[in-house]
Design goal:
Number of domains: 1
Mean pLDDT: 87
Shape: elongated
Order of helices and strands: HHHHHHH
Helix content: over 70%
Low-confidence stretches: none
Number of strands: 0
Number of helices: 7
Structural class: mainly alpha
Largest sheet: none
Oligomer: single chain
């Protein structure tokens, strides 16, 4: 079924919702699943491998042996005491992967014929539209700053050593 959605924002899902066509918004969302999976799958596997590696490294530490010897169930040990310190390096890598996702987005947008920010930026570069290029670079810069801020806050929440007060 083909939907005719008037362009307001240039993004299919918000435009469909604004025009009162939830079926068109749902259809656009379903069409985003495959490109989103193509962008995220490689990075997700890398992050899972890094998390596993750090979990195996932390599993041999003394505090895990002590907790296990006290009879705490294995799933509680893994979730509560092993995953929390092991996920910190993975969160840092997730922040860095945002750059790679935007770099790969152009290829995915071309393959799936999806009008996105990367395709818009490439068109602006080819047409020598300096204002559009500056706008895209500024938007990506703000995204990276916010991503790094969220990564730092998540690490502070997960690592109690970083929350200690230094005032005496």
């Amino acid at each position: 079924m083909e939907y005719v959605v008037p362009t307001v924002t240039g993004l299919m899902i918000p435009d469909a919702l604004i025009s009162g066509q939830p079926a068109a918004a749902w259809n656009a969302f379903l069409h985003l699943m495959l490109p989103a999976t193509a962008l995220a799958l490689g990075h997700t596997m890398q992050e899972a491998r890094i998390t596993r590696s750090y979990m195996l490294e932390n599993a041999g530490k003394d505090y895990i042996t002590m907790i296990t010897s006290q009879g705490v169930p294995k799933n509680v040990v893994n979730r509560t005491f092993l995953l929390k310190p092991s996920i910190i390096p993975t969160i840092s890598i997730m922040g860095l992967d945002k750059a790679a996702i935007f770099g790969n987005a152009f290829l995915v947008e071309v393959i799936f014929n999806w009008p996105g920010v990367s395709r818009y930026a490439m068109g602006a570069i080819l047409n020598k539209d300096i204002n559009a290029v500056c706008g895209v670079v500024l938007m990506l810069g703000v995204i990276f700053i916010l991503t790094n801020l969220m990564v730092d806050l998540a690490i502070i929440i997960l690592d109690p050593r970083l929350r200690q007060s230094r005032s005496k």
